[in-house]
Amino acid sequence: MSPLMNDSRAKKYARSYNDKKYIIASFYKFVPISNLDKLQNTLYHICRDLGIAGTILLADEGINGTIAGTKNSIKDLYQWFCDQPNLNGIQIKYSKDTSIPFHRLKVRIKKEIVAMGKPGIDPTSDVGTYVDPLDWNSLLKEKNTVIIDTRNHYEVKIGTFDKALNPRTNSFREFPAWVSGTLETMPNITKESKIAMFCTGGIRCEKATSYLKDRGYKNVFHLEGGILKYFEDVSIEENLWNGECFVFDNRVSLKKDLKPGEYSMCHACRMPLAKTDLESKKYSPGVHCPKCFGTHTEKQVKRFKDRQRQVELSNLRGEKHLGSIIKQDG
Fold first, then answer.
1. How far is CA 69 from CA 77, 87, 151, 209, 326, in A?
2. I want to staple 29 with a disulfide (CB 3.0 to 4.6 A). Which of 15, 22, 72, 90 is the partner?
């Protein structure tokens, strides 16, 4: 069976979760995986039978996913992970919501579970030092710590830690070029500098530390479990985060208490939108926003308008339109 949930089942799940509390789980593990086809088929059927929606990526280097389901279904899947010798100890973060942020189930095989485009970088053999979220603040406050936000520029724009370097990347594939072209030219940063990196769920910064170690950096650290785990473990009073945290699903952003934030999504350019963007004359739902106004072809604009009409018709029927899916980085 195809690892893509069919439209009728996706619509049924979208309706069944409406107005119900459910769990969103983000997880990953760098671990050598053989027989990817078999694991893909197994995971798809387990998740389908549990009523879980979301995306799971598989590659030779490991597993990466963000899914949603009832508390019991997520618990059952996590127990299945724990029962697998190579997936036991998987990094997982949780949050809650009242509406499902995914429209379908996808289990896909990729070249990388997070795309850097640098063959040979192997977090299973060499990686930076994990920093527990409860110890992260102390590391940030150390005078000579170099803080690097490994996320994309549009993620950084809506929230980050003070004094964090912003590589201004459009995708994680651009991170190595930033290291060689910018980081390694900074006179105050050496291969002995203490470098602390972070990302949304921990996977990008973990792979980034492996890359920096490969480049000869000695003192590399990363936030274990990423920003989401930091939000989960650190009290709001002690939380040093500024702004909100972008997430690659229909919630768009999360606040420090892991509740949905104030941002929405432009479904033309996929950029996060603040309330002021929605009030702009350059904003048309599903068609363009102040960030992408005037950048699309007539053919694209027509396609966006047609899709928006379908979205509005689906909303009138009380359904979720399957075309409004946020593309994940990498």
1. 10, 20, 26, 32, 18
2. 90
pLDDT classification of 98: cutoffs 50, 70, 90? confident
- What phi and psi, each to the nearest 5 degrees, are found at residue 12? -60, -45
pLDDT over 70 (residue 134): yes
Task: Please pick, among 47, 82, 199, 266, the residue that the annotation labels catalytic.
Answer: 199
Closest CA to 193 of 202, 203, 183, 201: 183
Answer yes or no: 199 catalytic: yes
> At residue 193, what is the residue type?
S
Alpha-carbon torsion angle 17, 4, 310, 298, nearest 10: 140
Q: What is the DSSP string of 254-322?
A: E-TTSSB-S-EE-TTT--EE-HHHHTSTT-BTTTB-TTTTT-S-HHHHHHHHHHHHHHHHHHHTT---T
Percent pLDDT > 70 in the chain is 90
Q: Is residue 184 predicted with pLDDT exceeding 50?
A: yes
Tokens encoding 19: 């107005």
- Tell me the backbone φ, ψ of residue 160, rounded to 5 degrees: -170, 180
Give the chain's domains with CATH numbers: 7-109 (3.30.70.100), 129-243 (3.40.250.10), 274-330 (no CATH)
CB-based contact 249:154 (threshold 8 Å): no
Each residue's pLDDT tens digit, 8-61: 444 443 444 344 588 999 999 999 999 999 999 999 999 999 999 999 999 999
- Greatest CA separation for the chain: 60
